[in-house]
Amino acid sequence: MKNTLRIFVLLLIAGHLVAAQTQTPAPTWPTPHEGDYVVRDFRFQSGETLPEVRMHYATIGKPEKDANGRTTNAVLILHGTGGSGQQFLRPIFAGELFGPGQLLDASKYFLILPDNIGHGKSAKPSDGMRAHFPHYEYTDMIALQRELVEKGLGVNHLRLILGTSMGCMHAWMWGENYPSEMDALMPLACLPVQIAGRNRIWRKMAIDGIREDPDWKNGDYAAQPRAALQIASDFLVIAGSAPARMQEELPARDAADKYLDETLKRVRDGLDANDFLYAVEASRNYDPSMKLAEITAAVMFVNSADDFINPPELGIAEREIKKVKRGKFVLLPISEQTRGHGTHTRAEVWRQYLKELLDDSRR
C-alpha cells in the first residue's frame, strides 16, 4: 500500500486539484536523514499493549544545546490524518521554509518530521495485524511522538511545534500536556474543541460505511473491500475540496465528472480500509477545550475561510483563542492562493504569521 498516504495527502492534505505535470525544481534544503525508533512495551489508552511500536522519522539539520544542556533549535512538524512526514518535503512547504535564509533554515534548525503511528512507515494495521492492531487515539499518538523526540532523538526542548490538520490538533494537546517543553505552537487547520457537528458526522459516516461492508469481514479481509473503499474515497474528495477553486478549474459538468472518475480510481487504488478506519477513528476522544488556559507557549493559530472541515461561520476559533494566554488567531480569506483544508501545507500563504510567531516567542 505504498501509494496510500501519497494519495491521501494529495486529496485531504494538499486539498487541491491535480496540477498539470511540470518539472520539479531541485530541492533547496539538505537531504533528510531517515530512521526508526522502537518504543518498547507501549500501553495504549484502550488498555491494549504492543511489545514494540516502530516510529519512523526524518530529520534535517543538527540539534544544538545551550550551556545548560537545553535543546535550543528543534522544530517538530506534525502531519495530518493519513499523511506522513514526507508530505512536508515538497516545494510548497520545504521550498518555502527550509532553504538558506528562510524561516526554518535547515542550517540553523533541527527539523523533526515523524510518521505517526498508523501512518507512513511507522507501525500500522496493514503491516499484518489488521483489525487486531491496538485502537490508538490522539493521546497515544502524542505520547509516542514525545518518546521519539526525547528518548529517540535526545531533544529535551522544542523551539516550535507546527502541526497541520490532525497535527494541528496534536499541537494543542502538546501545549496542554507538556506546557514547559516548547516555546511556540503553530496549529494550522483545526479547531481546539471536541469533534462534533458536521465534522463528527462525516467521520462517523465513513467509519460506519467501512464496518458495514460485508467484504470488510471485521477487518480480516484478504482483498480490499470495494464498498468500503468507495465510501472512504468519496469522503476524501469532498473533505479536501476547495469550492471556488473547483468551480474555476472544473466549470462544466463533463469536466467535473471526468475529474471525479479519474480521482476516485486513483484514490481507491491506494487505500487500505483498516489504515483509513483507524486513522479517522483516532480523533474520537479529542477535546482540548477545557485546558487551553494551561498553555504557556506563544500560539499562532491559523485557519482558512474555505476549509470544509473547519468552516469559519462556526465562530469557534475566535471564541476559544480567548482562553489562550499568549494566543492569536488568523483567518485567511479565500484567495487565489488558498486551497480549502489543504491551505495548511501551502506555506507561502501563511509564512508571514510564522515569522511573527518566531519573533514574538524568542527568549
Provide the succession of SSEs.
HEEEHEHEHEHHHHHEHEH
Low-confidence stretches: 1-22
Provide the β-strand percentage band.
15-25%
Radius of gyration: 20 Å
Could you characterize the architecture of this molecule?
An 8-stranded mixed sheet has the order 1-2-4-3-5-6-7-8, with helices on both faces. Helix 4 links the parallel strand 5 and strand 6. The protein is globular, with a radius of gyration of 20 Å. With 363 residues, it is of the alpha/beta class. It contains 11 helices and 8 strands. It has one domain: Rossmann fold (3-Layer(aba) Sandwich), CATH 3.40.50.1820.
Q: Could you list some keywords that capture this structure?
A:
363 residues; alpha/beta; Rossmann fold; 8-stranded mixed β-sheet; 11 helices; 8 strands; globular
Give a topology summary.
Blueprint (H helix, E strand, L loop, with lengths): L3 H10 L19 E11 L5 E12 L13 E5 L15 H4 L12 E5 L23 H15 L7 E5 L1 H12 L6 E5 L8 H15 L14 H14 L3 H7 L3 H16 L4 H9 L16 E7 L11 H5 L6 E6 L14 H14 L3
Parallel strand pairs: 3-4, 3-5, 5-6, 6-7, 7-8
Antiparallel strand pairs: 1-2, 2-4
Helix pairs in contact: 5-6, 5-9, 6-8
